[in-house]
Write a structure and sequence with these properties.
There is one protein chain. 40% of the residues lie in helices and 32% in strands. The chain is of the alpha+beta class. The protein has a four-stranded mixed beta sheet with strand order 1-3-4-2, covered by helices on one side. A hairpin with a 4-residue loop joins strand 3 (65-72) and strand 4. The longest helix has 20 residues, at 2-21. It comes from Rahnella inusitata. Residues 1-22 form the signal peptide. Keywords: Signal.
Length: 85
């Protein structure tokens, strides 16, 4: 019985921590949040891949949201995002 309780507690904690790590992409600077930095990433030729990499870097940096402020490239994409918390 104790093992079942511990298992459910571990699952609940793991689920809660994953949901708090995800940074949300925004289109403009969010009200009530301040900029905490900038991250950059590179990707192949897929804009979705570039967005995913910027999102992952924002989450790693502890940002609650991020805004892509630049993306360029032809066969290799480069992007920059501003982080907010």
């Amino acid at each position: 019985m104790k093992n079942i309780t511990m298992t459910f507690a571990a699952i609940a904690l793991a689920t809660a921590s994953f949901s708090t790590l995800a940074a949300t992409e925004v289109q403009s600077a969010p009200a009530g949040q301040q900029a905490i930095g900038v991250v950059s990433a590179t990707s192949g030729n897929s804009l979705t891949s570039l967005q995913n990499k910027l999102s992952a870097k924002a989450s790693e940096a502890g940002a609650s949201s991020y805004r892509i402020i630049g993306a360029s490239g032809d066969n290799h994409l480069y992007g920059t995002a501003e982080l907010y918390k």
